[in-house]
Design brief:
6-stranded mixed sheet, binds magnesium ion, alpha+beta, 203 residues
């Protein structure tokens, strides 16, 4: 399986990082070694002084597809979960400045905690899903999929023009504003609606 991720998909997050609003989705990937299973601790890696959380709605792919038309894209989703796209922001900024790919800042081991996946039938409207992340009991990021620049079906259609999607693949769909550094002993709790999906201790 592979993990595909979308960057800059919420206008308020683009503003906070002073990025430009993209004309088409910004896509990057994480390897399967980036996955952190639910409720496992996250150990801060030594190569960064600024690991930031980005809470995101994650979609799981139901079946193989390429060149998927947007109007059929919903048929390729088996379920929805919550993930964190951990980012080594210092390394990312350094690489960005040099005009280099920022792959390593996004793809390192355990940089992609993913919750249990809830069946798609629980989500009658994909573009109206509330989610949030609390750090040490305080809400830091709050979003709704209605705020996406590129909706979920558009992301599937776009990505599948380039990359064949396979059963079990995951797509991280972008983060709303409020990204911030995580510190040792931080307690991260992620929710879809009022349902707790992630519980991560930072070590
Ligand atoms: Mg992200």
């Amino acid at each position: 399986m592979k993990i595909i991720a979308v960057g800059r998909n919420y206008a308020d997050h683009i503003q906070e990082l002073k990025n430009e609003k993209p004309a088409s989705p910004v896509i990057f990937m994480k390897p399967d070694t980036a996955i952190l299973r639910p409720n496992q601790p996250f150990y801060l890696p030594e190569f960064s002084k600024n690991i930031q959380h980005e809470v995101e709605i994650v979609i799981k792919i139901e079946k193989e597809g390429k060149h998927i038309a947007e109007k059929f894209a919903h048929k390729y989703i088996s379920g929805i979960g919550l993930g964190i796209d951990f980012t080594a922001r210092d390394l990312q900024n350094e690489l960005k400045q040099k005009g280099l790919p920022w792959e390593l800042a996004k793809s390192f081991d355990y940089s992609a905690p993913v919750s249990e996946i809830l069946p798609i039938t629980q989500f009658p409207d994909l573009q109206n899903i509330d989610f949030h992340l609390a750090v040490n009991g305080e809400v830091r990021q709050r979003g709704n999929t209605s705020q996406m620049i590129f909706p979920i079906t558009a992301i599937i259609a776009y990505v599948s023009q380039f990359i064949t999607l396979k059963k079990g693949d995951l797509i991280f769909t972008g983060t709303p504003r409020g990204v911030a550094s995580v510190e040792v002993n931080d307690h991260l709790e992620g929710y879809i609606g009022e349902q707790k999906m992630l519980d991560i201790q930072v070590k």
